[in-house]
Task: inverse folding
């Protein structure tokens, strides 16, 4: 039985979810993957804060303690912002550790650089959790792209915005009331700017663009419009006409190889693949040259949807390492 050591950066909602899954599924992962996964260190701001079910000896506020771990196999990153997240993962790759992230802000900007460096050091980068939470869009696209070309992507990439628009239509309430409900339920932050402005969806779309087309558009050229100007009257009129407002992020590539992207509210009818996506769900519709259109739907955020796909990323890495190619 191979023993592997892992580290978790951050112990908020997602970091705690990763810890819980690795603890609860340790025996199952031993049986299915043939490895004993040990959480060796958790990077936190406050090491004196008690965390239920967590041995205090696992906690550290020094990233150097993570890098000093012998036989460190993977680093799960679940913190916020570009830095120090990028610097941490860059250093972990240099140490020879795989890295798995849920940080779309950082990965939209530095994802391609991290992947290039990982190839150099013979490790892997997992980023399924950066985009659409529990929807396996990254793995699906990676599989499709082995044979198909992805030509056009449309997605509902922010569950908070989708919840607000859904509540306005189904409950007949204003944008402000729906936003307050989202905050009360924990779907929206106290400062909801990134969600309702479209910036969160923009970062996720840039990650999908890089994966599908190998490049991103110039960020400054992308039109990003939020949902705060949509009124209840507009939503009700659309509903009366058999249409619904969806906040859609889309990107495509033309015959000259130029990338076109935009994010904003759109009116869709029942024939549209994103028409039926309600509540906090995310969805991604892919147009491909051979398969045609594929639509993936699922929960866009939360402790376990996000944490589980990060652990699944690691399980995939371990499975690839165990494959023996016959000579």
Result:
């Amino acid at each position: 039985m191979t023993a592997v050591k892992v580290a978790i950066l951050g112990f908020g909602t997602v970091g705690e979810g990763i810890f819980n899954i690795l603890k609860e599924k340790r025996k199952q992962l031993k049986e299915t993957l043939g490895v004993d996964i040990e959480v060796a260190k958790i990077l936190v701001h406050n090491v004196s804060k008690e965390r239920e079910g967590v041995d205090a000896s696992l906690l550290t506020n020094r990233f150097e303690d993570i890098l000093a771990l012998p036989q460190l196999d993977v680093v799960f990153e679940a913190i916020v912002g570009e830095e120090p997240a990028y610097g941490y993962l860059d250093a972990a790759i240099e140490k020879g550790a795989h890295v798995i992230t849920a940080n779309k802000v950082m990965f939209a900007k530095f994802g391609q650089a991290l992947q290039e460096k990982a190839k150099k050091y013979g490790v892997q980068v997992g980023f399924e959790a950066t985009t659409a939470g529990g929807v396996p869009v990254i793995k699906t696209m990676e599989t499709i792209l082995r044979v198909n070309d992805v030509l056009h992507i449309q997605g509902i990439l922010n569950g908070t915005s989708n919840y607000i628009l859904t509540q306005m239509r189904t409950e007949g309430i204003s944008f402000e009331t729906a936003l307050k409900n989202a905050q009360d339920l924990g779907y929206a932050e106290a400062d909801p700017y990134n969600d309702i402005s479209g910036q969160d969806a923009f970062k996720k779309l840039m990650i999908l663009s890089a994966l599908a087309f190998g490049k991103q558009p110039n960020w400054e050229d992308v039109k990003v419009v939020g949902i705060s100007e949509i009124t209840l009257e507009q939503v009700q009129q659309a509903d009366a006409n058999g249409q619904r407002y969806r906040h859609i992020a889309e990107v495509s590539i033309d015959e000259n190889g130029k990338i076109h992207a935009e994010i904003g509210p759109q009116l869709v009818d029942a024939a549209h693949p994103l028409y039926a996506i309600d509540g906090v769900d995310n969805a991604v519709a892919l147009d491909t040259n051979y398969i045609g259109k594929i639509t993936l739907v699922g929960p866009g955020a939360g402790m376990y949807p996000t944490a589980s796909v990060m652990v699944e990323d690691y399980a995939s890495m371990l499975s690839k390492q165990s494959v023996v190619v016959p000579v």
Notes: The chain has a mean pLDDT of 92. The chain has two domains: 2-133+304-322, 137-300.
